[in-house]
Amino acid sequence: MIKKCLFPAAGYGTRFLPATKAMPKEMLPVVNKPLIQYGVEEALEAGLSEISIVTGRGKRALEDHFDISYELENQIKGTDKEKYLVGIRRLLNECSFSYTRQTEMKGLGHAILTGRPLIGDEPFAVVLADDLCVNLEGDGVLQQMVKLYNQFRCSIVAIQEVDPQETNKYGVISGEMIRDDIYRVNSMVEKPAPEDAPSNLAIIGRYILTPDIFKLIEETEPGKGGEIQITDALMKQAQNGCVIAYKFKGQRFDCGGAEGYIEATNFCFENFYKTGKAY
Ligand code: G1P
């Protein structure tokens, strides 16, 4: 059973400067909740209650968010404002939170390796909180992936089709289709130019990884952009037939940039806030 979910959250959020100069990008609100809270809710829905967060300098607001604020609790006790805290209180009751700091930014692979002491030797999920994923029709994206893991018992990456001109923003896979929404990966490339991309199937910020990934990351040389890429470490698992790519059901908003962030805001306002499901 998978119990742990790792949130790499040390990145600078440069695409959202100056908003992210003194505030973690994971704390940007989508309507009334910070991005990372949506991710933790998705993890808990999938049964992953041990939350591990890789933070960095200037990210203390994350730890304060997942903690009790006694002054605030005291202030609103017995008022109708208590309803605003119902969701976050539930997360505090049902999840555990542990943190470690990444002192140097050396890529997503390096961030995941930094989380190793929090994860140990068990399979785990990874959520990149700036990808906000929702599915109004049924299971959340992580829940869908956990079910798939129980079937395949290997690493799983969530994918979506992107405009072929945009492959240079993503890890891109190719593989053998084994169901209309599942591929066994045989190749993956980090941020290829459109002419070099093996397909237009892009990895988004949801992964399930088997723990052998840590050793493979350690053995991975810096790749694209001089950074240690999770895509390169996963490629080594794929060579043994051990990576599944899954076209998830639902929607994904890239909240690391203004356009996706605004789309997510409108979506959440219509579907959660206005309908009273936002807390
Ligand atoms: C990272 C990964 C990339 C993946 C993307 C998904 O890139 O390196 O393979 O497609 O996340 O959001 P980043 O967006 O951190 O540059």
TrEMBL record:
It catalyses: alpha-D-glucose 1-phosphate + UTP + H(+) = UDP-alpha-D-glucose + diphosphate. It is an enzyme of class 2 (transferase). GO terms for biological process: UDP-alpha-D-glucose metabolic process. InterPro entries: GalU_uridylyltTrfase_bac/arc, NTP_transferase_dom, Nucleotide-diphossugar_trans. Pfam families: NTP_transferase. CDD domains: UGPase_prokaryotic. It comes from the Bacteria. Its EC number is 2.7.7.9. Transmembrane segments: none annotated. Residues 9-268 form the Nucleotidyl transferase domain. The keyword Transferase applies. Keywords: Nucleotidyltransferase, Transferase. One of its GO terms (molecular function) is UTP:glucose-1-phosphate uridylyltransferase activity. May play a role in stationary phase survival. Belongs to the UDPGP type 2 family. This is UTP--glucose-1-phosphate uridylyltransferase. The lineage of its organism: Bacteria, Pseudomonadati, Pseudomonadota, Gammaproteobacteria, Pseudomonadales.
